[in-house]
Design brief:
heterodimer; A: 385 residues; alpha/beta; GMP Synthetase, Chain A, domain 3; 2 domains; 10-stranded mixed beta sheet; 4-stranded mixed beta sheet; 14 strands; 33% helix; globular; B: 526 residues; alpha+beta; 3 domains; 5-stranded antiparallel beta sheet; 16 helices; 12 strands; 12% strand; elongated
Chain lengths: 385, 526
């Protein structure tokens, strides 16, 4: 009896929980990029979906000579998010598949209006991929999604590569849905993510590239950081990439040095000074000399010390520029300072949190940068002709 | 449920077996008649027993000066004509003719002084006589004697010792067992030269009366296991034993399981190695496949060459075999499950490749997978059974039509061909599990297509539960992994160096565990 019962229970757990959502791969339309724009019509939203046309994908077995785009781009204007995929499905012969979607591009207008419904959709949809990159675009998202890359058959792949290389050169800081929503739903913090734009590269060709960072105040975009401030943001956000630093004017004329940051680590330490919150940003970085355009004597420790000092100043100015813009101008906590204080001083935090956003402008932030030159590259002094 | 049914079947079998056995024994004891003294009576008994057998050969003659009546009886083709003529008939008929006193001539006298054949035995019952005649011996009857002389001068036609068909190896002895029991025992004796190697003979099969030999080393094999094997062999009641597979099916622990609980091998070296680890071997007359018990799951992954080639490379090969077993069972199922339910965990580039290859294919992936697996099984079976001359045609059909043309015609995706052929190839790495994999692959595939990865994981769980629940002659099938035994791990996933394996596997027999007194790592003096 007991055996029978366990057997039945096991069987029911197999059959009742079943996943009957079998869909053949050939019946799926794989979405590679998802664009959201505010429509020109009142209160409506325009969705742009980029899906793959498998027969146009070239494989080693089958190469198609002409450079036809391998994707299909469809724009639909609907009332709400709920209709987005449904509206698309009306004209598609295949089931849409969101799980492989790596790129979400949101138009600036839409971002300024608020991203809560969009993020709700992406968090709630069972097929949505939490690692998809969220990018804010200058102008219309649909234009970037319609744009065809000369490099990759699938334009979304190109954008994904862009996002990946910024890890390497640390030119920007991109959040995926998961971290974006995390920051959005944490009380004092606001998200910030990279911006993408299409730039005219001459010869009637356009080029997509990441430039600047969109700063949010809660779910609404407040403004953006320019290049210098973006660099500062990557420092505070502890992005570990290989940045290049160029320093001119080292005391000697006609000397230019370029340093490459090999490794860096940023620590944000909350403190209480006279009962008021303060933040200490500690940056430790190691560098390597990349190019020397001049003839500095790199053998001497003094020179290296001097160079390190200059680098520290440079980094400090970048960080401060970013802090000024975000804290003083936009009054938004994109760095998670509030959360840090909350964690370290939970009791005192109750006092601060009421007027946290107003207090941001007066927040005392101390920056401490420490740079060490690890090597001068493969040679020490420059080549003397 | 399955267990209950199995238990019921077992019980029924046991009852009927015990009934049959008792019947058989009473029959035997009734017929256990001693031989009559008169030669004419003996002659009549033989004639009536073998009535209608035209190959029975009876040669009547007289011995000595006063012409004592005698006859020899044997079956044409089973006896060695030269020995019977030169060493039996000649001395009896020629040497004894001068002998005047016929009183001296009796069976004992002939056995002791006249016949110079090596293997002689005096037998007393009619049953023994018939048994020996059928075995190929020649029986000598003498007037006035209630016993007969059995002369073991058999000549059996058989093939030469050859390389085994099933187990190929690069390194190691290349001879294999043949169909003759005595030769096979001799092959084992050639390897294990110890009086401790015991050989016990059974006769099973009412019609075939097949000789079956139990081989084990008394000081190593667990007594309980030997007793259990004997008990199970005794309880077999069947009309014919044509191959060791008959025995295997009767003594198996888990007859309904697809996994083997009795091992088989065709090579004397592997057979000896198993016996030397404390297992019991069974040789069956007429079959080159020897059986070894207890048989554990891990033995399917141990090749005999593992122990001849280096430990390091063998360990690596064994890891590959483990991987192969999993690929063999689960690759098509995983492909179908990932394809149908979880394309999210396939990298995007790979997913696109899959999607491109499946573009415009008419069949759903499960039908394609099941179909290709069945085609593979058909090709494999045909490859085994086909007459040699057709081989070439078959391989052309197999390789070209199925492989190339089916893809070009857009019937099957090339990825599916890769998946199925890989599955087929890896099944050859673990030959003992080939049958189990063949049986289980399709149900796992069906589960995968209905429930996705979830179904595959269920199948894996059920398989593990099943494997850990069965035993082979008292030994847990999954030992030494379950129950865990650290010293057994030396020869499990990896095979350690011989000088590290100082003890025999504890889970097979606990008698005399030490392999030798002093096994050491070689350290030559510099």
């Amino acid at each position: 009896m007991k055996i029978k019962l366990t057997f039945i229970l096991i069987l029911t757990s197999v059959f009742l929980s079943g996943c009957w959502d079998l869909v053949e791969i050939k019946d799926r339309a794989i979405i590679t990029a998802f664009g959201i724009d505010k429509s020109d019509m009142d209160g409506k939203i325009t969705f742009t979906l980029q899906t793959i046309i498998p027969s146009r994908i070239s494989t080693p077995m089958k190469t198609s000579p002409e450079m036809k785009p391998s994707v299909r781009v469809v724009s639909k204007t609907t009332d709400s998010f709920a209709d987005a995929i449904r509206e698309y499905a009306k004209q598609a012969e295949r089931r849409t598949y969101l799980m492989q979607n790596r790129i979400i591009i949101i138009g600036e207008d839409m971002a300024k209006e608020g991203l809560t419904p969009a993020m709700d959709f992406f968090m709630r949809h069972p097929d949505s991929f939490q690692g998809a990159w969220v990018l804010i675009c200058k102008g219309k998202a649909s234009e970037i999604i319609k744009w065809n890359s000369e490099v990759e058959r699938i334009p979304a792949d190109f954008i994904e590569e862009l996002v990946k290389t910024r890890n390497f050169i640390c030119s920007s800081s991109v959040e995926n849905i998961h971290t974006f929503v995390n920051k959005l739903s944490t009380k004092p913090t606001s998200p910030a993510t990279a911006m993408i734009e299409l730039v005219d590269s001459g010869n009637n060709e356009t080029e997509a590239r990441l430039s600047g960072i969109a700063v949010f105040k809660k779910d609404k975009m407040a403004g953006m950081l320019d290049n210098l401030e973006t660099k500062g943001y990557t420092w505070i956000n502890n992005e570990r990439g290989r940045r290049l630093f160029e320093i001119g004017d080292i005391g000697k004329a006609n000397v230019k040095m370029t340093h490459e940051i090999e490794g860096s680590r940023t620590k944000i330490i909350p403190e209480l000074i006279n009962g008021k919150p303060a933040i200490l940003i500690k940056v430790n970085a190691t560098t390597k000399i990349y190019v020397q355009d001049g003839s500095l004597d790199l053998d001497s420790q003094d020179t290296l010390k001097k160079l390190e000092k200059m680098l520290e100043e440079e980094i400090k100015s970048q960080i401060e520029a970013c802090l000024n813009k975000a804290l003083k101008e936009y009054k938004t906590d994109i760095f998670g300072f509030g959360e840090k204080i909350h964690r370290k001083y939970p009791k005192e935090w109750k006092k601060f949190k009421v007027k946290w956003e107003d207090a941001l402008a007066d927040l005392k932030v101390i920056t401490d940068v420490n740079v060490k030159t690890k090597s001068t590259g493969m040679i020490i002094d420059t080549i003397k002709p | 449920m399955v267990k209950k049914i199995a238990r019921k079947i077992k019980l029924k079998k046991l009852i009927s077996e015990s009934k049959k056995n008792s019947d058989y024994e009473t029959e035997v004891s009734k017929n256990a008649n001693s031989l009559p003294e008169s030669i004419e009576d003996n002659f009549k008994i033989i004639q009536s027993t073998f009535e209608g057998s035209s190959d029975l050969n009876i040669r009547r003659f007289s011995i000595g000066a006063n012409k004592k009546k005698a006859f020899i009886v044997n079956i044409e083709g089973l006896y060695d004509k030269r020995i019977i003529n030169e060493n039996v008939l000649a001395p009896l008929m020629e040497d004894l003719i001068e002998k005047t006193s016929s009183e001296e001539i009796d069976i004992e006298y002939i056995k002791s002084y006249i016949l110079n054949a090596s293997s002689l035995a005096i037998i007393y019952t009619i049953e023994k006589v018939t048994d020996n005649i059928l075995d190929g011996s020649t029986i000598l009857f003498l007037d006035g004697e209630s016993s007969a002389l059995s002369i073991n001068a058999k000549s059996r036609k058989h093939r030469n010792i050859d390389t085994p068909m099933t187990e190929n190896k690069i390194r190691g002895p290349h001879e294999g067992f043949i169909e003759v029991l005595s030769t096979n025992i001799a092959l084992v004796r050639n390897i294990i030269k110890s009086p401790d190697l015991k050989v016990e003979t059974f006769k099973i099969g009412r019609q075939t009366r097949t000789n079956i030999c139990l081989l084990y080393i008394k000081s190593l094999a667990e007594d309980k296991v030997v007793e259990e094997v004997k008990k199970r062999l005794d309880s077999i009641d069947i009309d014919a034993i044509l191959e060791s597979g008959y025995i295997e099916e009767f003594i198996e622990d888990a007859p309904l399981s697809p996994f083997p609980t009795v091992g088989n091998t065709e090579t004397p070296d592997k057979f000896s190695a198993k016996i030397l680890e404390g297992r019991v071997g069974i040789l069956v007359d007429g079959s080159p496949m020897a059986l070894t018990v207890p048989y554990l799951f891990i033995e399917s992954f141990q090749g005999s060459e593992d122990y001849y080639a280096g430990a390091i490379v063998s360990s690596q090969l064994r890891l590959i075999r483990f991987m192969a077993f999993h690929i063999n069972l689960f690759l098509p199922a995983l492909y179908v499950a990932l394809h149908g339910f979880h394309p999210n965990i396939i990298p995007q580039k790979l997913l696109l490749t899959i999607q491109v290859t499946r573009e415009g294919l008419p069949l759903p992936v499960i039908v394609e997978a099941a179909g290709m697996i069945i085609i593979w099984e058909i090709l494999r079976e045909a490859g085994v059974r086909m007459p040699r001359p057709i081989g070439e045609a078959l391989s052309i059909v197999g390789a070209l039509i199925i492989g190339q043309v089916a893809v070009n015609a857009g019937l099957v995706s090339p990825l599916m061909i890769i998946v199925v052929s890989l599955t087929g190839i890896v099944s050859l790495l673990t030959p003992p599990l080939m049958d189990a994999a063949t049986v289980l692959r399709i149900p796992i595939l069906i589960f995968a297509s209905a429930f996705g990865l979830y179904g595959v994981i269920w199948c894996y769980f059920f398989m593990i539960i099943h494997l850990t629940s069965i035993r082979s002659f008292g030994m847990p099938y999954m030992s030494p992994a379950m129950p865990f035994n650290l010293s057994g791990m030396k020869d499990y996933i990896v095979r350690l160096f011989w000088w590290l394996m100082k003890t025999r596997p504890r889970y097979i027999g606990r008698k005399e565990l030490q392999r030798a007194e002093d096994i050491r790592m070689p350290s030559p003096k510099k």
